[in-house]
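FORM 7B: Structural annotation worksheet

SECTION A. Query
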Amino acid sequence: MKAARKKLGLGRSLLLALAVNAPVWAAERGEAAPQCRLSAFQNGQAIDLQRLKGKVLYVDFWASWCGPCAQSFPFMNALTHEFHGRGLEIIGVNVDEDVADAKGFLAQRPGHFTVAVDGDKSCAERFGVKAMPSTYLIDRNGVIRYVHLGFRPGEAEEMKKLLGQLLAEKPAAASMDHGIVSASK
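SECTION B. Predicted structure
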């Protein structure tokens, strides 16, 4: 019980630190996804979100102490199995202070998707993460199309519907600015 309270205290501290250190703006729907680099949890390989343009991204910020995060892992695993072949890339971004906590979490709830570490929390700061989990759906052009805070199993069907719509879209032509057609001539 004492360890659980300590983790909750650390979690609250992390969210407070993210909120205090977050940029004045947060990544919002309709904007280009922030540039950020992560490290793959298993092998430390660099992950650059910008290099994944052309795929639909489901970027989910999570922590081991987060109950709804634990509930979201089976859902993300199911999404991977259903949509990966159609161009979906799920990246679960861990923001734990201690990597051992994330390892323990993953031992109980393995992810069948890319699990990344945001060691210095710069990616979470650029996205303006305010809650755990925070999910960002990014289209094939690198534009944030949906932001969701928290996880409730009852919302899974709506999320699947949104992903299906994004996966059905074709990438925009090079003349478009971040997927938004310019009205100027």
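SECTION C. Observations
The chain has a mean pLDDT of 84. Helices lie at 2-21, 67-83, 99-108, 122-127, 156-168.

SECTION D. Sign-off
Analyst initials: ____
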